[in-house]
Design goal:
This protein is of the alpha/beta class. The chain contains eleven helices and twelve strands. A six-stranded parallel β-sheet has the order 2-1-3-4-5-10, sandwiched between helices. Strands 6-9 form a two-stranded parallel ribbon. A two-stranded parallel sheet has the order 7-12. α6 links the parallel β4 (about 105-110) and β5 (about 150-155). It binds NADP nicotinamide-adenine-dinucleotide phosphate.
C-alpha cells in the first residue's frame, strides 16, 4: 500500500547540511508541499564517489534535483583548487547529466563578476577574479546547455546554519558576541538576501517550469558597512557594541583584489514572480520573528 506522501514526486537536495540545503528542508512543508524531499549529506555518501552517486540516482529516480553541494567560498576554493574543480565543475557535470530529463537547479554566485560595474544582468559577461568564481562560471555553462535546467545566481545569503557560521549575519553576530569587532567595507557592494527568501523564489521558479539563468538576490544594493548597521538593529542585546563595527575600505584589504560591486539587477526575475523580492531591510521588517 502506498501512502499519500509516497505518491508525491521525489526531489533530491544535495549539500543538505549546508545553509541553502538546510533551508530547503526546513521550509518544505510551506513552499513545496507537493514534493517528497531527500536531503543528501556527506554522512550518507561522498558525492564525488560517482559510482555510488549513479547507483543511488538510478534507485531513487528523482523527479527534480536541487544541487546545493559545493566548495562554496573563495578561501576554501583557493586552499583546495583540485577539490573545487571536482565539486563545482565535475560533480555538477555528472549530476546534470544524470538529471538530463528532469528539472535541475544549480546555484551560482555574483562572484563570477569582477565587480567593476555592479548592477549586473544575466546577459553580462563573467570575469571572475578567483578560482571560486571560475569554477562556478564553468558550472553555469554546463548546466545551461540543457534548456530545462535552471541556474540561480545569488548573492550573500543570511540565516541560521548548522555550523553557525555560514550566514553573513552569523559571522558578524559571533564576532560581536566574542568582543572581537569587525571591519566592514563601505566600498564593497552586494545584494544580500535571506536564505529563506532565496528558497521561496526557487520553488516559485520550479513550479513555473522555468529554465535558464536568473539573478536571485535582495532588491537593495548595500555596502558591507550598511549591512552591518542594519543587522545590529536586529540584536538589541548587542547594540552597545555598535562601535565595534568599524568602517573600512576594500582597497586596503591585504589579500588578493576584491570584486567591489557585484550587485545584481533583478528585472528579469521580478517580472515573473508573483511576489517580488524585497530589499533586505524590508524583508527583515516583514519577518520580525525569523531567526537572523
Ligand atoms: N550562501 C551564500 O551566501 C551563497 C552565495 C552565492 C552562491 N552560493 C551557492 O549556493 C550553493 C549552496 O551554498 P551554501 O551556502 O548552502 O553552501 P554550504 O553551506 O557550504 O553547503 C555546501 C554543502 O555541500 C556539501 N558538500 C561539499 N562537497 C561534498 C561532497 N563531495 N559530498 C557531499 N557533500 C558535499 C558540504 O558538506 P560538508 O559540510 O560536509 O563539507 C556542505 O554541507 C553553492 O553552490 C554556493 O556556491 C551560496
Amino acid at each position: 500500500m502506498t501512502t499519500a506522501s509516497e505518491t508525491k514526486p521525489l526531489a533530491w537536495i544535495t549539500g543538505a547540511g549546508g545553509l541553502l540545503g538546510s533551508y530547503l528542508l526546513q521550509t518544505a512543508a510551506e513552499f513545496a508541499p507537493g514534493w517528497r524531499l531527500r536531503g543528501l549529506t556527506r554522512a550518507q555518501f561522498d558525492l564525488l564517489d560517482f559510482a555510488a552517486l549513479e547507483r543511488e540516482f538510478l534507485k531513487d529516480a528523482p523527479g527534480l534535483v536541487i544541487h546545493c553541494a559545493a566548495v562554496s567560498t573563495v578561501a576554501e576554493a583557493k586552499a583546495n583548487p583540485t577539490l573545487a574543480q571536482q565539486v563545482n565543475v565535475e560533480l555538477t557535470r555528472m549530476l546534470a547529466g544524470l538529471a538530463a530529463t528532469v528539472p535541475f537547479v544549480f546555484f551560482s554566485t555574483d562572484l563570477i563578476f569582477d565587480g567593476r560595474r555592479g548592477n549586473y544582468r544575466e546577459t553580462d559577461p563573467a570575469n571572475p577574479l578567483h578560482l571560486y568564481g571560475e569554477t562556478k562560471a564553468a558550472g553555469e555553462q554546463l548546466v545551461l546547455r540543457n534548456p530545462r535546467h535552471l541556474v540561480l545566481r545569488t548573492s550573500i545569503n543570511g540565516g541560521t546554519s548548522r555550523t553557525g557560521n555560514r550566514g553573513f549575519n552569523e559571522q558578524l553576530r559571533q564576532a560581536l558576541q566574542k568582543g572581537q569587532g569587525m571591519t566592514l567595507f563601505t566600498d564593497e557592494f552586494r545584494s544580500p538576501i535571506a536564505a529563506r527568501e532565496t528558497i521561496r523564489v526557487l520553488w516559485e521558479l520550479v513550479h513555473k517550469n522555468s529554465g535558464g539563468l536568473f539573478n536571485v538576490a535582495g532588491a537593495d544594493r548595500l555596502s558591507r558597512w550598511q549591512i552591518g548597521q542594519l543587522l545590529i538593529q536586529r540584536w538589541p542585546e548587542l547594540l552597545a557594541k555598535i562601535n565595534d563595527i568599524k568602517p573600512g575600505s576594500a582597497k586596503d584589504f591585504p589579500g588578493p583584489p576584491r570584486a567591489l560591486d557585484t550587485s545584481l539587477d533583478l528585472a528579469k526575475l521580478q517580472a515573473v514572480l508573483t511576489t517580488p523580492i524585497p530589499g533586505l531591510a524590508a524583508w527583515l521588517a516583514a519577518h520580525p520573528h525569523e531567526p537572523f
